Amino acid sequence: MSDSLERLYLAVLAARDLDPATSRTARLFQRGPSQMAKKLAEEAIEVVIDAVNGDSEAVIRESADLLYNLTVLWASAGVRPEDVWREMSRREDMLGIAEKLPKSSMKLPKVASPRVAARRPIVALEGRAARKRH
Ligand SMILES: N=c1c2ncn([C@@H]3O[C@H](COP(=O)(O)OP(=O)(O)OP(=O)(O)O)[C@@H](O)[C@H]3O)c2ncn1[C@@H]1O[C@H](COP(=O)(O)O)[C@@H](O)[C@H]1O
Question: What reaction does this catalyse (predicted)?
Answer without folding.
Answer: 1-(5-phospho-beta-D-ribosyl)-ATP + H2O = 1-(5-phospho-beta-D-ribosyl)-5'-AMP + diphosphate + H(+)
